[in-house]
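Reopening: structure tokens for the magnesium ion complex, inputs below.
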Amino acid sequence: MRLSQYFLPILRDDPKEAEIVSHKLMLRCGMIRQEAAGSYSWLPLGLRVLRKIEQIVREEQNRAGAIEVLMPTIQPAGLWRKSGRYEAYGKEMLRIKDRHDRDMLFGPTNEEMITDIFAQGVQSYKDLPRNLYHIQWKFRDEVRPRFGVMRGREFLMKDAYSFDLTREAGQHSYNKMFVSYLKTFARMGLKAVPMRAETGPIGGKDSHEFLILADTGESEVFFDRAFHDMDWQAFEIDYDDVEAVAKVVDDFTSKYAATSEMHDQADYEKRVPADRRVTGRGIEVGHIFFFGTKYSEPLGAEVQGPDGKMVPVQSGSYGIGVSRLVGGIIEASHDEAGIIWPEPVAPFKVGLINLKAGDAGTDAACERLYHALECKGVDVLYDDRDERAGAKFGAMDLIGLPWQVIVGPRGLKDGIAEVKNRRTGERENAALDQLVGRFAR
Ligand code: ATP
Ligand code: MG
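Re-run output (same inputs, fresh job):
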């Protein structure tokens, strides 16, 4: 993409309405624009990041055996009346009437609809287990939308729903999602610590929230420093191996980690030596929940068991805040100059800077490099504008692409460009003819 032809409305100054760094940076970089409280348009740069995150989430869901569907944003109220949540949900639910005066709502979540879909599509225990998910916009009329996309009213969520015959089988489905979440967040360069969460009125069942650490997080967290030393990256796992999956879950849940709602100071002091106690703030990026037959019973989602009797299925739901992650990653990865994108979610991998636009030799060298990179499928943003070098450096640092390639007449005489790593700030000279090979990996 050529910057001269792109739509990147960068703001010079910090927007006054933004309280936290990710919100400030997303507005300054022209990633989003607010349309109403908690509702945003995604501008080209922001949308590229959102799509990358969404794709990582999708790949890891698929890998764990979940199957993608897509349900509508607007739902009929009927199913919610059956589960009892139409009344119970309160003011967070946006209620709508259609032209026939029928009650509709903008979905804040999809347990009812997916349970009904499942019930109509499956008859026998032989059709189990199944896990269905979608990545769709939700609306929750939050009392206090704030911090940009972190607490929006309209936001993008991945929500998956598992269906099993027994509690034990359901546990394995839950564990698979647990492990897939670790992998999903690790691929984005995040350590999202799983913390035991409130299970609400049905009680006794499993629930974990995944939180990334950031000073601006809304939750207070307490955990064992030992999490830092765990292997977050590379556990390759066979999701059908029930014991191997359970072992990863055990490893992660055996260490103390809790948000303030679940925190037990005495237990914390007993289990974690003083020098390993970490307290701080966290952002909830995912939440998994096992609720058994809470929805299958009222909605009649039953299958015929091996003994011929009909039984309600055991279910769980598994959410990831896809749009919240865009802000969360920025909170976890930035400096004074701007955003520092982890490569897997970066809007472009390389920012190509032409130091002397208008100079025939520099233009030609940049064009060649730009085309060669594009041909190899490298996402490159080419700053071909006629601007001061300082302004170009500032803009590139602000939008935080992982690599900058700086081309000017001086280096060109020796056939070289400068390559800067945004995260470390390290600069090195590189032969122009080797650059494509270097980035096209
Ligand atoms: P929170 O406690 O932050 O209000 P929640 O517990 O109500 O969230 P869940 O129902 O668990 O949310 O939704 C799954 C995920 O969706 C959350 O872990 C979070 O990442 C994301 N999410 C929830 N509410 C919002 C929101 N208002 N804006 C952006 N993302 C959200
Ligand atoms: Mg939650």
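Residues 167-187 form the longest helix (21 residues). The first strand starts at residue 32 and ends at 36. Marking as resolved unless the reporter disagrees.
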